[in-house]
């Protein structure tokens, strides 16, 4: 089964090696027939404590690391976007 990859914004970096990522999704409501925004927070492993509040990151599913941590931070999207813009 493939691992899910989600993109969101870091809302907290206060815990050691852990960041809280807010992932927002948009979908069309079946009855109201309008676009609805729904958000959920995930706790992800950040080994080097390199991500700060406000960073846009991608997270990937993994085996459970603790009671609430089941995700690992892949990359910082704002940094990679800046590198490609310079090149």
Automatic annotation (TrEMBL):
SUPFAM superfamilies listed in its UniProt record: Nucleic acid-binding proteins
Biological process according to GO: translation
Molecular function via GO: rRNA binding; structural constituent of ribosome
CDD domains hit by this protein: Ribosomal_uS17
Protein purpose: One of the primary rRNA binding proteins, it binds specifically to the 5'-end of 16S ribosomal RNA.
Matches recorded under HAMAP family: Ribosomal_uS17_B
Annotated family: Belongs to the universal ribosomal protein uS17 family.
Protein name: Small ribosomal subunit protein uS17
Organism: Paracoccus alkenifer
Lineage: Bacteria, Pseudomonadati, Pseudomonadota, Alphaproteobacteria, Rhodobacterales
Gene (UniProt): rpsQ
């Amino acid at each position: 089964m493939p691992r899910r990859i989600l993109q969101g914004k870091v809302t907290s970096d206060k815990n050691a090696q852990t960041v809280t990522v807010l992932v927002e999704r948009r979908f069309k409501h079946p009855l109201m027939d309008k676009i609805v925004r729904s958000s959920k927070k995930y706790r992800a492993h950040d080994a080097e404590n390199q991500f700060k509040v406000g960073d846009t990151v991608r997270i990937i599913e993994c085996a459970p690391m603790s009671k609430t941590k089941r995700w690992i931070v892949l990359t910082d999207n704002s940094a990679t976007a800046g590198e490609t813009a310079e090149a």
